[in-house]
Design a protein that fits this description.
single chain, about 140 residues, mainly alpha, Rossmann fold, two-stranded parallel ribbon, two-stranded antiparallel ribbon, globular
Amino acid sequence: MRAHDGRAIPTFLRQALQSRPLTVFGDGSQTRSFCYVDDLIRGIVALAESDEHSPVNIGNPNEFTLLELAKAVLEVTGSSSEIIYEALPTDDPQQRRPDIGRARELLNWEPSVELIEGLRRTIDQTGHARLIGATA
């Protein structure tokens, strides 16, 4: 994910690492599910190697509010940034959560990387400079 792509994780990480306020839309109660890339790749490979030809959701069914995500980012980065609230866009979905029942049943797959660990790995793998938009 690019630091300025508008998605929650890169945006919150960039803001926290730049000691800028983390922008939460609405009251932050809308939920999202975050799947770490290693888990996603394992799921895609398992599906590709299976005989299954129907759709199978690959994702993480664990939901977090965007406010919980913002607080987790502050914890992982050690940032003292504050959280600010802005108007909720009218098209912002209130919930995103995949049903991975078929992945569990057909592929014996489910994600294993928890949110905090995924955030830590993202920072370690990406490097602070790239997350905050600095150039090498």
